[in-house]
Amino acid sequence: MRALCATDLSAASEAAIENETCLECLGRIGVETIHLVTVVPANVHSGMPGVNFEGRRQQALDQYRTVIESAGFDVEAHVVRGTPYRRINGIAETIHADLVVVGSRGQSPLENRVIGSTARNLARTTVVPLLVNRIERATDEPEVLREHLFQRVLFATDFSEHADRAFTAFSYLHHATEEATLVHVRSPKDEGLDVDISPQEQLAEHANTLESWGIKTRIEVLQGDPADEILAVEADVQPSTILVGSKGRSRIRRLLLGSVSEEIVARATGNVFLVPPPRAV
Predict the structure, then answer these.
(1) What is the number of H-type helices and E-type strands within the chain?
(2) Alpha-carbon distance values, 198 to 157, 158, 189, 203 (Å)
(3) What are phi and psi of 31, to 5 degrees?
(4) pTM (2 d.p.)
(5) What positions does the domain UspA occupy (predicted)?
(6) Which of 164, 193, 226, 267 has its CA 20 to 30 A from that of 10?
(7) Least confident of 91-105, 183-197, 237-251, 263-277
(8) pLDDT-based confidence at 251, cuts 50/70/90?
């Protein structure tokens, strides 16, 4: 497997990329090659007064490469210029990445209403699974909040094809997973729907699959707003990562907020693993 690790050379990026436990978790799910990508914004130039960007960039990349190679991975570095999320998506497709990893310090409730962060934009547009690795906020020397990336997974499902696709990620995540909480939230619009199999039975089928891999599993069927209820379960069980599928969106719809997966990426306190639909050809 190939992982693309995006870095802006900040302390938060360093915490995400150099954490030994995080690297070990990536190795356990089958990652062998890590592509380091740093995107130089179009308005930043190496000759700008007071900016030793070239030297700082090279020093940071060399440091990251040394740490990652020492952990047993093959490493390739890419330095590109442009809009970060667009260039990251483009390189992910070019190298056939199996997942993209991006560090995020999270945002305050007010900042959650603003479009702009690379992690939020990637959540809307990514064409490969995206791991948002949550980093401490408001500190000069941040740490990864939950470094055992896939040890305890909260899987949220609405039983759609998008959610089923996300569940298939356990085919490789289970090598690093010990516990899983499976959650379905019934919203008011679900009332009165005639279904052949109850949510409890559908979750139980998923649970049987995970337990056959030795994963301790619990199920929850809740009622209310999906994002709010899923995040309430996160606060209760403290998973390492929330696993969720993302619905496809048109080019214009990608500019709008509102989907459950985007709310979770914005508001979750821990890591989020977002599995998008396959790219339309």
Answers:
(1) 10, 10
(2) 13, 12, 16, 9
(3) -70, 130
(4) 0.86
(5) 2-132, 150-276
(6) 267
(7) 183-197
(8) very low
**CB burial readout 11-44, b (16+ within 10 A) else e:** bbbbbbbbbeebbebbbbbebebbbbbbbbeeee
Q: Is residue 263 part of a domain?
A: yes
Would residue 127 count as lying in a domain? yes
The residue to which tokens 């990637």 are assigned:
122
Sequence-ordered strand ranges (E) for the chain: 2-6, 33-40, 74-81, 99-104, 130-134, 152-156, 179-186, 216-223, 241-245, 271-275
Residue 10 has which token pair? Answer: 């900040």
Per the prediction, the chain carries an average pLDDT of 83
In whole angstroms, what is the distance from residue 244 CA to residue 183 CA? Answer: 10
Q: What pairs with residue 132 in β-bridges?
A: 102, 272
Cβ(39)–Cβ(82) under 8 Å? Answer: yes
Structural domain harbouring 129: 2-134
Sign of CA dihedral 252, 254, 257, 259: positive
Half-sphere exposure of 177 (CA within 13 A, CB side): 27
CA–CA distance, 265 with 263 (Å, rounded to integer)? 6
CA distances from 55 to 41, 51, 52, 58 (A): 16, 9, 6, 5
Rounded CA-CA distance 61/168 in Å is 33
| Size (the chain), residues | 281
**For the domain that residue 76 is a member of, what is the CATH number?**
3.40.50.620
Compute the average pLDDT of residues 20-27. 91
pLDDT, position 59: 76
160 and 123 housed in the same domain: no
Same domain, 200 and 166: yes
Report the relative pairing of strands 74-81 and 99-104 from DSSP bridges: unpaired
Does residue 279 lie within any of the structural domains?
no
Are the C-beta atoms of 171 and 177 separated by less than 8 Å?
Answer: no
* Residue 142 is assigned to a structural domain of this protein: no
